[in-house]
Amino acid sequence: MLGALVIGESLIDIVEQDGRVLGEHVGGSPLNVAVGLGRLGHRVDFVTRIGDDAYGARILAYLRSAGVRPAAGSVVAGPTATARAILDDDKAADYHLELDWRLSGNPATPPPAVVHTGSLAAVVEPGCLAVAALLDTYRPAATVSFDPNIRPALLADRGLARERIQRLVEGSDIVKVSAADLNWIEPDRPVEQVARNWLAAGPAVVAVTLGDRGAFALCAAGIARVDAEAVAVADTIGAGDAFTVGLLDALSAAGLLGARRRAGLQAIDVTTLGAALRSATDCAALTVARRGADLPDRAALDGYRVRRFGPAKNG
């Protein structure tokens, strides 16, 4: 079982298409990662900001149902953040958010093997400054995982956001990023070139999702690629977060997470990385087949793999 600390925003996704509200779902990229890891049986502490309103109560219940423990101080006076996810004809989401992101103090949590953050938490002031400080605190003892998961509508200063993302990339062990994010960050360079530049800046693994074209991941030993799974897509909300969960879960199972195993992660081979990439894609495939960011539990993930590959063979 992995001990994880996730840091980032919690919110309610209000999903709309063609002017109709299809539903309201608990969301937020870091929250999705926390819940996804919790549903797979990992121990998860979550540093976030939740209002003391009805939406906040719903988020707390949702977290606790997945076994995720909100850190002390995560519930504050005021409204809970919301995001309107407007679906296009391809069921991809465009986000419009109302968010007040701020944190204070250090959480009293057990030492984690991995610390994950990303999305708005990493770039929106003033909370992003506290997030950076927490990563500095935990980096000597934990693997650091980062997903930029960019929301351009909330980023008034593109240059500053890019600088903050670059600093976080340099201090991370694992970076997951979408091709769309890389195109926003470096629009004049090919996606794979930007990913290689990021790998050279410090991470042991840089994994890039390509939507319906699958994903690839880079490490010192080379590159691994996987195709996307053929599934009926309900919507793409939470797909990237599910990919992150599957990737961290697989790397944990391979014994590669935790600061004492940093050298092992840096020396990961392409075969092991490819298997982790496939696990990440499986997790994402299950999520896009459901409405909202409804990440799978262990039974669903294992059952999906049995249906695809047959029962695991022992010996």
TrEMBL record:
Gene3D superfamilies: 3.40.1190.20. The keyword Secreted does not apply. One of its GO terms (molecular function) is ATP binding. It holds the Pfam family PfkB. Keywords: ATP-binding, Kinase, Nucleotide-binding, Transferase. InterPro entries: Carboh/pur_kinase_PfkB_CS, PfkB_Carbo_kinase, PfkB_dom, Ribokinase-like. Residues 6-296 form the Carbohydrate kinase PfkB domain. It comes from the Bacteria. Belongs to the carbohydrate kinase PfkB family. This is Ribokinase. The lineage of its organism: Bacteria, Bacillati, Actinomycetota, Actinomycetes, Mycobacteriales.
